[in-house]
Amino acid sequence: MDASFSMALLLAILSVSHAVSPSIVKGEFGASVTLPCDGSAFRGTPEAQLDVLWRTSDGRKVAHYSRRVHSVDVGFQGRVTFPTARIRQGDFSINISSVTFRDEDLYECVWNKGPNEKGLNDVRLYVLEPPIPNHLSVPVGDPVTLPCYGHINKETPKESFVQWKRDELVLKHSSDEVTYGPKYEGRASVSSERIQKGNFSLSLSVTGLCDSGVYQCSTDLNPNASWVVLELKDFGNFTPVSLDLGMPFSLSLPQEPVKVIFSKEGAFPEVPLCSVDTGDFKCEPKYKSRMERESNTLTLLNMTLDDVGTYTVIHSRNCVINRMCRVIIKNSNNDQNLLFLKIFIPIVVLGVACIILGVFMHM
After folding, report:
1. Where are the alpha helices (DSSP H) in 235-301?
2. pTM of structure
């Protein structure tokens, strides 16, 4: 076996060994990672001769330092740091911030000076899904984002598909086409830009009373990507209203179809009162004789102590709150009792004082 053949065989073995044993780096979606590369053999090289290249296994440039000039590929701009000071010291590692599933790849660090480049290190980057809560609780009316992450086809990221369901369709996003469930149009959204990075999270700009439940996320690569339970807490943004017994209570209504519900303690569950839909006005039998509607105003007549509680106007289709009033009834009997005490107590005190004074005068 001649020397040239032995050298070629050794290089082949080293090449295979290098290819099958890259460094392993794992990072959470959205986190920062460091891809290591030891360039200590080139420490002391004049800065004008430093030439280090990072690229992916398919030849796409990630970052390049050559002749005191830094350059970063479009897909990594603003996310890759490759400090000159560290390069001078022989540390050719790079940092990638806000990693996404599109960043998952095999990276190569090479010394790029001269006609024959020298491979220094291969790094296999794995991007992990961040921890996803299985239960979210927000006040009714607040916005919420339901998380969902997953791998995508990096060759065709714009064709990634995502669907959200809660018994029925919430939203379906396919390429540039978006389909909404009837209860969610105008308030549900996913970001096309984030989808191409593997972030399929659903945002609701406002939550309604009927939105509690289990939401399921599915993608083209994972039909059971994730699920999350959404729980709606009591709505605290109400208008206080104080009325006398027997007084009427009025609520203004929006133009679109609405329902009015009542809660005794201002908490779930609610009791339906009336519904208004394109001129059709219906109330529960218990309230029918006491309800009047004039234009966009609904009035409950002859308020009693049983009517103390919270009145909520919601959209009929999606249960989004339009307004809420918490009514307090002023009890006239209590007012009379208070007035009596205010008059009676001073009289009693004055009488006692007179008796004591009389006793002292006869001593």
Report:
1. 285-288
2. 0.75
